[in-house]
Write a structure and sequence with these properties.
475 residues; Four Helix Bundle (Hemerythrin (Met), subunit A); Helix Hairpins
Length: 475
């Protein structure tokens, strides 16, 4: 605010000084023109008064020469030439006084009294010349008497003309004095106005300097605060840049971990697919086992219906027992591979293996145990029903396991996709962090440049404050 006020005051001071200079210049030019005109006028007036006196003096000399010529005939030729020269000069002077003459540096005077006296003087001069010519031709007492009378009248007119010239010259001098007084008054008025304007400028300049000094101090304080803030900002930017570098390194590490997770998820997906394939194979084996159990049930029914073919049935039972034993062994293996869900099936397989052993024993003792065949058949039917139920349950569990492996495969696939997306996002974040680091470096350089600029501004403000104090002492 103070700087803007100082700028406005500066413009006003410049305007005032320009007005003062223009006024003084115009006044000086006007005074110079008036003085020059008055000097020319006074010079012309002095020349007119001088020539008016010359007319009177030359006329006296002319009359004296004429009278001397009449008395001294030896000097007649030389005197006649002088008389002619004086008459010519008097004609030129009188004409120049009346009309003005450049050669004589005379101007026409508009004073009525002076012009009237000149007209009378010119008429008297013409008469005097006639008398002088007559005396030159023939000198008589009467002509000399008339010459003296005309010369006396001429001298009186010449004196009046000279007095009138001195009178209007005196008036011109009085006018010059009055004009000089007026010019002095105008100059004094201009001086008073200039002093008043200077005093006003001094007061306003002093007030503005006080405001400028106060404002420069406030600006210096504000700049110092801004310089401190800029320094803190530079430190903060440096710390932020360091943090962003650490974050970039962390993002690189996270990207590597995400890529490793993607690879592990792909391996898990492959294992899940392998597990699904194994479960499908187990399901196919269970279906085959179910069919075999059904076949056993049919054979037991046939055994019940065909008791008369005990020998053939005994052999069939022996072979069936062997097959059942192998099947039970395979079932135990598959149950072990099925894990927790195959425990029940392992139990059934164990029972089947025992049943096969019993069948072998029964085949060996078929003769002795024929009476117990029906019981064994009934037991076999019951066990077969249980085995069928167990197989169906195992098939159901296997189907659920297949679905679980499929869900695991889908989940692992999603995890792999998510890890890939995370890796891509981390790469984008790394690019963004690099851009942020570059921007922070630019900001850091800008902060340093701002701090340097503020330091220079502070120095300039101190110089401005010193100038304001110096100007304050001056005003």
């Amino acid at each position: 605010m103070a700087i803007r006020s100082f700028g406005r005051l500066k413009n006003n001071v410049v305007s005032y000084l320009q007005v003062i200079i223009i006024a003084l210049s115009l006044a000086s030019v006007f005074n110079l023109a008036v003085i020059y005109r008055q000097i020319n006028t006074m010079t012309s007036d002095g020349r007119i008064v001088n020539y008016a006196g010359i007319v009177r003096g030359k006329t006296q000399r002319l009359i004296k020469l004429v009278l001397v010529q009449q008395q001294t005939e030896a000097a007649n030729s030389d005197s006649h030439q002088k008389i002619g020269t004086i008459i010519f000069e008097l004609d030129e002077i009188i004409k120049g006084l009346r009309e003005g003459d450049e050669n004589l540096k005379l101007i026409r005077v508009e004073d009525k009294k002076f012009q009237s006296n000149l007209e009378q003087l010119e008429q008297a001069w013409q008469q005097l010349k006639v008398t002088l010519n007559e005396i030159g031709e023939e000198s008589t007492v009467e002509k000399k008497k008339r010459l003296l009378e005309q010369s006396e009248a001429y001298w009186e007119l010449a004196n009046e003309t000279a007095f009138s010239a001195e009178a209007f010259t005196a008036r011109h001098v009085a006018d010059s004095k009055s004009l000089a007084i007026i010019l002095c008054g105008v100059s004094l008025f201009l001086l008073i106005v200039i002093l008043k304007i200077s005093q006003d400028i001094k007061v306003r300049l002093k007030n503005t300097v006080v405001d400028l000094s106060s404002s420069s101090s406030e600006i210096a304080t504000a700049i110092a605060e801004q310089e401190r803030v800029a320094s803190q900002q530079a430190v903060s930017v440096h710390e932020t840049t360091t943090t962003m570098d650490e974050l970039e390194a962390s993002c690189h590490q996270s990207t590597e971990q995400a890529q490793a997770a993607v690879a592990a998820a792909q391996q898990a997906l492959q294992l899940a697919e392998d597990g699904t394939q194994t479960v499908m194979e187990t399901l196919a084996g269970m279906s085959a086992m179910e069919k075999k159990v059904e076949a056993i049930a049919e054979q037991i029914v046939r055994l019940s219906e065909q008791t008369d073919q005990i020998n053939g049935i005994s052999q069939l039972v022996s072979e069936l027992a062997n097959q059942t034993n192998m099947l039970a062994l395979n079932s135990s293996v598959e149950a072990v591979r099925a894990g927790e869900h195959g425990k029940g099936f392992a139990l059934v397989a164990n029972e089947i293996r025992k049943l096969a052993d019993q069948s072998q024993q029964s085949a060996g003792k078929i003769g002795m145990l024929i009476s117990e065949i029906q019981k064994a058949i009934n037991s076999a039917v019951m066990v077969t029903d249980e085995g069928t139920k167990t197989v169906k349950m195992t098939v159901h569990i296997t189907q659920q396991t297949e679905q679980a492996f499929a869900g695991v495969a889908n989940a692992v696939n999603k995890v792999a996709l998510n890890n890939q997306q995370v890796s891509l996002n981390l790469k984008q974040q790394i690019d963004a962090i690099q851009q942020v680091v570059e921007a922070m470096e630019v900001i850091s350089r800008g902060s340093q440049e701002t701090a340097a600029g503020l330091a220079q501004t502070r120095i300039g403000t101190e110089h401005l404050n010193e100038a304001a104090l110096l100007l304050r002492q001056m005003v």
